[in-house]
Amino acid sequence: MTKATDKTLAESMGRRRSREVIQAEVADSVLAEIVPPCTVDLPIESLYRSPFQVREMGSEDEIAKLAESLQSSGLISPIVVRAVANPQRDLQIKSVPEFLAVEKDLTVKSFEIVTGHHRVHAAIKLGWSMIPAVIKHMTDVQAAIALTADNAIKKDLSDWDRYQAILMLERTGACKTGREIAATLGVSPSQITNLRAFGHLPNAALEIVQTYPVVCAYKLAYKLHAKGLNEREPKLVTEALQKLADRAAKTGMSKDSLDKDELTAQEQVIPWILAKVASRTSRKNYRRELRIQRPGDKPIRLVVTESGATIDAQGLDPDRLAKLIEENLVALIAQ
Predict the structure, then answer these.
(1) CB 283 within 8 A of CB 308
(2) Could you tell me the residue range of the domain that residue 129 belongs to?
């Protein structure tokens, strides 16, 4: 072989794409439908969060624990992705600075995560640049259903997350009926009806639940709606959930350390609201009348209600009466 031939061969070998690039292209081609799916290593920079993901990302502690598991046991289950032509840039898992982009092999296509968002973030925490993945052909509908079904089996999935999944499946057209949604989420059709009760919460209360999903399970949301409290007492509903959120924000505080009159559990929300309403109603109906008899003159009549008091005391010195009332009101306020 001549030197010119050696040089040409070396140049062509230098232009060869990496094994990962070839694997990714094969997995994303029609060949993937013929041969069993295989695991390929993908650059983390090529990954994008799914626009169908409604589940909140885990806390720093949860990601740290998952990272420890990856470090000790490796990634047992590869993530599942699908190729996307024009991904949303704001959904990119880990962006590459422009001045470094030319130094990296970014010829691999962009991939949207279907399952494994938390595993990817744990891998980033460990400093991984590549992650094992299975690439599958999926339409938007198939990806939305697959992601939702995968989330549904998670033990930490909140009722609020399930409600958000219902809205997403309807919005994208992935599911047409309540039965289809129930099958995807792995719950009964009646529970889908109960979960929809979140949509009847007051807007301010919805914002609280979105931040602290633990403060309102679907059972509480359903009871608030069934009793009409969302419509009649939106401020009290919001106040009750805010009290629970304030408690949830105070980590490390045990339930036993709380005062018994405090609103500390979801079971107490409706009784607390009803007690507030009853107290307010009783104050509105409060009326007390006092009569002080005076020999040879009209009795002094004092009427006290929630809104004020009136005195009918003809014949009394008005200056002395005003001074007496002022002195006693000052003492009353001081108490």
Answers:
(1) no
(2) 13-138
